[in-house]
Amino acid sequence: MSPSVRLQEMIRVIRGARTQGEERGVIQRECAAIRAQFRQADNGTRSHNLAKLLYVHMLGYPAHFGQMECVRLIASPRYNEKRVGYLGAMMLLDEKQDASLLITNSIKNDLSHSSQYVQSLALCTLGCMGSAEMCRDLAPEIDRLLRASNSYIKKKAALCAVHIVRKVPELGELFTPASRSLLSEKNHGVLHGAVVLITELCERNPETLEQFRKAVPELVQIMKGLVMSGYSPEHNVAGISDPFLQVRILRLLRILGRNNETASDAVNDLLAQVATNTDSSKTAGSAVLYETVLTVMDIKSESGLRVMEYISMTSLQKIVQTDHNAVQRHRGTIVDCLKDQDASVKRRALELSLALVSAVNIRSLMKELLLFLSSCPPELRAHTTSGIFNAAERYAPSQRWHIDTILHVLTTAGGDVRDETVPNLIQLITTATELHCYTVHKLYRALIADISVQSLVQVACWCIGEYGDLLLRGECEETEPVQVAEDDVLDALETVLQSHMSSPATRGFALTATMKLSTRITHNVDRIRSIVSIYGSCIDVELQQRAVEYNALFKKYDHMRAAVLERMPVIDKSSPGHTNGESAGGSIKEMEPTKRTQEVVLPQEPANQVCDLLDLLGGSGEPPQPSPALSTTMLGPVSSTAGGDLLDLLGGLDVTPVPPSVIVYEKNGVTLKLQTDRQTDTGMTITLTATNSTDREITSLTLQAAVPKSVQLQMKAPSGDVIPAHGLGQVTQTVLLNNPNKVSLKMRVRVCYTSQDFVCQDTVQIDSFPSPAW
Question: Is residue 757 left, alpha or beta, with left meaning phi > 0 and alpha meaning psi from -120 to 50?
């Protein structure tokens, strides 16, 4: 490449380099040629060489040897050389280098040049890299240019003055008079520069801030002109007239109106006008509205101005925390937005309506929310029910109103409520002792009307089981007396047990309620015994276990049945044992879908199984359900302890103990179970069993295990590597673990197999192991 190569050719060659070394070689040769030409006399190529050097600098290579050349080109009388020189100074020089002081005189001369373009070059350079010394020397020249008649020069001088004020704040007083006069300009560029300059002056000097508060009417008129002006192709951005200038003016008005009532009053009408006439469907309009709302929140504006929140519901949620009463005044407008066709507007209006709920308006506003719940989109129901429950719990005027509200929600959107709703409602009902009769009558009527809402049916079954005697008595002061026969109640519960819509948890509630009624009625105990005995052979293990235990109460422990099935005590929600229906015996962690490693935490066996008999309702909530990702299969019966004959509920059944197993992996039809065959103080023998529920066989199955370093692992040979389809066979592998140091035992298993011509590989983490059967 010759030394006289053009800039475009140099760029092409550098881009064509195949390696970084080749690129470095090209740049080193070109830089050497540029140095040689810099040492020569003026040959007309200095500006071209500096332009190439600036490109080299942009690539990150050293270019400091071109600094003095920038000084020479700035002093040149030729415009094309001066332009490249100033560009080089802005890129290669900064205020810390002595070479920057050498161009001060040239900049001063160019600020007085007859050409506006030369003046603009000097202004841009000073505003970019001017040091404090340069700013002090050239500030009078900038002030003079601020008063010039040329708009092109004034807008650049204003931005240069901003740089000077930031470098030397005490020079701000010099620009105050000129900056005030710039507000009368019609050119948007000059106005933008003037507003930025005034903002900088006001933020740095309280006295200047007071002076410019007198200019608020002028700023308001400029802003109104922008908001109400027609279409202007020169300044229009997405239908908004110069949003950049609008944002700057709003920001300045926020500073001027802060802690000043006079300035704030002058701005109030403008802010309302901006909020009303600005289209927020575009990004430019949203930016203007955002600055408007921030200004409303920052200045001493009238509380009535908060009405603009219905335009921007999201921003209104910030205001409701600071000026709740002002937003409350426009509650009707916000509630009307719940009927808007736009889903996003409905969501924001819902969140704001929930935030407006208070002890004063809970009754009226809750009516609107319940009305909205009956017709709200499905995606908003869960959020609506959650918000209604929280508001009712916090501001309920009475327990009856609280119970009625929750039952109304369950009737309207029972399928979208949270899991903890059932135990929470049961806890509320138990504490409202004077409303037991009213509640059980109301829930019974709801159960007769509809059994499809599982949460409502569960609460109804629980109440009927607990307070069935109050229902049959037919005496209730809170509601119309209704005579209910024993057969009617049992028919309702049996309908729940037999319905295909009832979940296993709901059937458990219904069966327990039926059993509890055996101590609350007198003429249909034999029918209850018959219903319970039917479910002793139910396919559902949980329901079968309950039925077997209840049958034992009828036969062997009938003398204890009344004491065992007496009413539950009042549930104290704040007590340590209250778990909102969660199993107290342990937890099963469900892994996040994005994680490939699954945590397996097995339920611990209860220390005293008398609790299973005494707490036949399973606490205040649903029976424990297995996690979707993991499930435990307890194949053995409840083992008896030293508790005596009371615990021998399954007496007379000859069942051979089978080691309990746990599913540690279930994916793509492949299920991997783990069971403990033998366990000692320092060792354990476990068996991994893989089955296949798909319609194709699984091939190339391999299991790999890893344990902590202090634990010895031995894996026996597997029974095979092919798992037959449709669960017709299985593959087993025995693992021996020796733990001499008795450390916390953990194991990680990697499962690899081929399914339908693609290879699957997953890893599961096992943190606890099931106990052996003996």
Answer: left
> Please, are residues 472 and 521 in contact by the beta-carbon 8 Å criterion?
yes
- Alpha-carbon span 476 to 473, nearest angstrom: 9
User: Per-residue DSSP letters for 7-43?
Assistant: HHHHHHHHHT-SSHHHHHHHHHHHHHHHHHHHHS---
Q: Is 474 helix (H, G, I), strand (E, B) or coil?
A: coil
Using DSSP, how many helices (H) and how many strands (E) does the chain show? 32, 12
CB atoms within 10 A of CB 611: 12
Predicted TM-score of the model (pTM): 0.44
Rounded CA separation 290/311 (Å)? 11
Strand, coil or helix: what is 688?
A: strand
Give the model's pLDDT for residue 277. 73
Q: How far apart are the first and last CA of the chain?
A: 88
- The residues pairing with 731 across neighbouring beta strands, listed in sequence order, are 690
User: How many whole angstroms separate alpha carbon 30 and alpha carbon 172?
Assistant: 46
CB 106 within 8 A of CB 77: no
Q: pLDDT tens digits, residue range 443-460?
A: 988 898 888 889 999 999
Q: Between β-strands 670-679 and 661-667, what pairing exists: parallel, antiparallel or unpaired?
A: antiparallel
Instruction: List Cα–Cα distances, 538 to 286, 328, 500, 546, in angstroms.
Output: 62, 56, 14, 10
Q: Which stretches of 147-242 are DSSP H helices?
A: 151-167, 172-181, 188-204, 206-212, 216-228
Q: Which helix (H) or strand (E) holds 81?
A: helix 79-92
| Cα separation, 345 vs 338, whole angstroms | 7
List of the chain residues with pLDDT < 50: 1-2, 303-308, 310-311, 575-656, 773-774
CA dihedral sign, ordered 529, 535, 541, 543: negative
Task: Please enumerate in sequence order all residues whose Cβ is within 8 A of that of 722, keeping only pairs 6 or more positions apart, or say none.
Answer: 697, 698, 699, 701, 731
pLDDT of residue 599: 36
Q: Is 586 left (phi over 0), alpha (psi -120 to 50) or beta?
A: left
| CA–CA dist 443, 741 (Å, integer) | 58
Whether 200 and 166 have beta carbons less than 8 Å apart is answered as yes
What whole-number distance in Å separates Cα of residue 151 and Cα of residue 185? 8
The pLDDT value recorded for residue 734 is 92
pLDDT at 464: 92
Report the alpha-carbon distance of residue 210 to residue 103 in Å, rounded. Answer: 38
The CA–CA distances, whole Å, from 367 to 46, 386, 660 equal 81, 16, 52
- Residue 11 contacts by C-beta under 8 Å, 6 or more apart in sequence? 55
Q: Determine how many CB atoms are found less than 10 A away from the CB of residue 172.
A: 22
Burial class (CB in 10 A: 0-12, 13-18, 19+), 391: buried
Using an 8 Å Cβ cutoff, are 245 and 191 in contact? yes
Q: DSSP of 622-673, one letter per residue?
A: PPP---SS--EE--SPPPP-TT-GGG-TTTT--------EEEEEEETTEEEE
- Residue 604 has what pLDDT? 39
What 8-state DSSP symbol labels residue 723?
B
What are the pLDDT digits (tens) for 110-168?
A: 888 888 898 889 888 888 888 888 888 888 888 888 888 888 888 889 889 988 888 88
- Can you tell me which residue has the tokens 């007239």? 241
